[in-house]
Design a protein that fits this description.
Elements: H1 7-14, E1 34-37, E2 40-43, H2 48-62, E3 70-75, H3 81-90, E4 95-101, H4 104-113, E5 118-121, E6 134-140, H5 158-168, E7 169-180, H6 187-203, H7 207-212, H8 219-229, E8 232-242, H9 246-259, H10 264-278, E9 284-287, E10 290-303
Parallel strand pairs: 3-4, 3-6, 4-5, 6-7
Antiparallel strand pairs: 1-2, 7-10, 8-10, 9-10
């Protein structure tokens, strides 16, 4: 790739969103990714209920269950822990697991903990895997770190990533893609700016810098890209989530936020100001007396 750097590499160095995969369960009680799901607080990264409903179930509904031995891949899965949960839930006999990611630190951590997984260090725009390798796969919370359009081809685009996914999946395979999306064209820029404003404050970066590292794409556009490459769309789903409360967010990230000059009071004011600004565009839900933004995750289930 020469001097072109894959955007997710830069993001993970800064944010490391999957660090919690190797943490103890109690970390998630107040942690990143907690949502209210089926009337219970669940962590959308680690909850076996959510992993089943969002990833495993659509794979089971579309994979050839006559083939008891399959190759399963997680694109951008960091340390790879989700793979073993999905493999167990599939109950198809032998499930050979592959994890493709560019984050060497996460991969090394995963190799020590999960020797049964094949770890592949590779950018998703140039996957070091043979054509037609996988029967089933998934990618979650990865696509938003790649732009729709790349100026002077300086960064891999979402289309570049999907082309590589298409190349390494077998004909007749199933692929589940989940990413932060938007319900309509009005919500898309508003939610992107709302999230970027908060992330900029807690990370000490500028809003512009954060926005450059995020490219939220609506489901229709992502589907059109996938179809132009050759994928068939099996299902399109909106997955609703509610943000973590301000105090719980600060409980989880307060120490890191302090390093960047952020305070709980400052975060609370910023969120309240943002709610006023976007109240006519975004949807909010009152939980425990606090207004929390209702976010949309988009899911495409594709077949090659």
């Amino acid at each position: 790739m020469g001097d072109k750097k894959h955007l997710i590499e830069n993001v993970e160095k800064d944010v490391k969103p999957y660090e919690q995969f190797m943490a103890k369960k109690e970390t998630f009680k107040q942690g990143w990714g907690n949502i209210l799901y089926k009337d219970k607080q669940e962590n959308m990264y680690t909850s076996e209920v959510i992993i089943h409903d969002w990833i495993t179930q659509p794979i089971l509904e579309n994979v050839d269950t006559k083939n008891k031995n399959i190759k399963l891949v997680d694109f951008g899965g960091a340390a790879g822990a989700t793979l073993l949960i999905v493999a167990k839930q599939l109950k198809l006999g032998k499930v050979e697991c592959y994890n493709v990611d560019i984050n060497r630190v996460a991969l090394e951590r995963g190799q020590k903990s999960f020797p049964e997984i094949h770890f592949v260090e590779s950018p998703l725009s140039m996957i070091q895997i043979d054509d037609n390798s996988f029967d089933a796969g998934y990618s979650r919370f990865v696509m938003q770190y790649n732009p729709l359009v790349s100026k002077e081809n300086s960064l891999p685009t979402q289309a570049d990533i999907l082309k590589e996914f298409y190349r390494v999946m077998k004909h007749g395979s199933v692929l589940v893609i989940i990413w932060p999306g938007a319900r309509d064209n009005r919500e898309y820029p508003a939610f992107n700016e709302f999230s970027a404003t908060i992330q900029a404050y807690v990370s000490g970066r500028s809003v512009e810098e954060v926005l450059k590292q995020r490219s939220m794409t609506d489901t229709k556009t992502m589907g059109e890209i996938a179809q132009s490459i050759g994928f068939k769309i099996l299902t399109t789903t909106e997955l609703r989530t509610t943000d973590l409360s301000t105090e719980k967010y600060y409980d989880r990230f307060g120490e890191k936020m302090k390093q960047n000059g952020a305070t709980l009071e400052g975060l609370q004011k910023l969120i309240q100001d943002s709610i006023k600004k976007y109240s006519s565009t975004l949807e909010f839900e009152t939980i425990e007396g606090e207004q929390l933004v209702v976010a949309s995750l988009s899911r495409l289930v594709l077949s090659k």
